[in-house]
Specification:
The chain is of the alpha/beta class and 212 residues long. It is built from six helices and 14 strands. Strands 2-1-3-4-14-13-12-9 form an eight-stranded mixed beta sheet. Strands 6-5-7-11 form a four-stranded mixed beta sheet, covered by helices on one side. A two-stranded antiparallel ribbon has the order 8-10. The longest helix has 15 residues, at 13-27.
Length: 212
C-alpha cells in the first residue's frame, strides 16, 4: 500500500511525513511518499493533502502543479481513493474560500470557508493552540477518539458545510468552529493531527487502516 503526501510547496511536510511514516510502521500501513508528481498521486492507495498559509495562495499553488488537480479528481472522485485534507488542505475541499478574495475550491464537500467570529470579543483570531474536540457523529477515522480529546489548531478561517451530515466534529471557541468534515472516502481536519499527540496519531493510524 502506498500513501502519498502531496507536495505543492504549501504544507509542513516534514512533521506530517514523519508522523505518517511512524504510524505506517506501527500498523503495517505500507509505504509513505512525499511527492509533487501527479503520476505518484495516480498510483496512490491513500492521498494526504496538507496545507499551511492563506487559502488563495494554497489553491493557486496546487493548481500550478502540472496535472495535480486532475490526478486528485480522478483518484478521489472517480476511483474513491481514501483522502485526508489537513488544515488548508481540508479547507480546499469546499466550494468556495473567502479569505481575502473569493476563490473556488475543489468543491468535493459543499460549503464555504469563512473567517472565525468568536462571540466573545476577548478571544483572539487566529484560533491558535489546543482545543477540545466535540465529536458530532461517528467515523471510522475517529475510532478510539472521544469528545474532550485535544487537537492542535492554527487558523483564522473555518469550513461551514452546506450539509450538516458532513460535519463530523467541531470545537468551541465562543461559538462552534469546524474541526472535521467528511463524506464517502474523503475526510478533512482543520487541526494538525501530526501535532496533536496521541489523538492525532490515532487518527492517522485509523486513516491508514481505513477500508471505506
Amino acid at each position: 500500500m502506498l500513501t502519498v503526501l502531496v507536495d505543492y510547496d504549501s504544507g509542513n511536510l516534514h512533521s506530517a511525513s514523519k508522523a505518517f511514516q511512524r504510524m505506517a510502521q506501527e500498523v503495517g500501513g505500507g509505504d509513505v511518499l512525499v511527492s509533487a508528481r501527479a503520476e505518484d498521486v495516480a498510483r496512490a492507495d491513500r492521498i494526504v493533502l496538507p496545507g499551511d498559509g492563506a487559502y488563495p495562495a494554497c489553491r493557486r499553488a496546487l493548481g500550478a502543479v502540472d496535472g495535480m488537480v486532475q490526478a486528485l479528481e480522478e483518484a478521489v472522485q472517480q476511483r474513491a481513493v481514501p483522502f485526508m485534507g489537513i488544515c488548508v488542505g481540508m479547507q480546499m475541499l469546499a466550494t468556495l474560500g473567502r479569505e481575502y478574495d473569493d476563490v473556488a475550491g475543489l468543491d468535493w464537500i459543499g460549503g464555504e470557508v469563512v473567517r472565525i467570529a468568536p462571540q466573545d470579543a476577548a478571544l483572539k483570531v487566529p484560533h491558535m493552540g489546543w482545543n477540545d474536540l466535540v465529536v458530532d457523529r461517528p467515523h471510522p477515522v475517529l475510532e478510539g477518539v472521544e469528545s474532550g480529546d485535544h487537537a492542535y489548531f492554527v487558523h483564522s478561517y473555518h469550513f461551514l458545510v452546506a450539509d450538516p451530515a458532513h460535519l463530523v466534529a467541531h470545537v468551541d471557541y465562543a461559538g462552534p468552529v469546524t474541526a472535521i468534515v467528511a463524506r464517502d472516502t474523503i475526510i478533512g481536519m482543520q487541526f494538525h493531527p501530526e501535532k496533536s499527540q496521541s489523538a492525532g496519531l490515532r487518527m492517522i493510524a485509523n486513516f491508514l487502516r481505513w477500508r471505506p
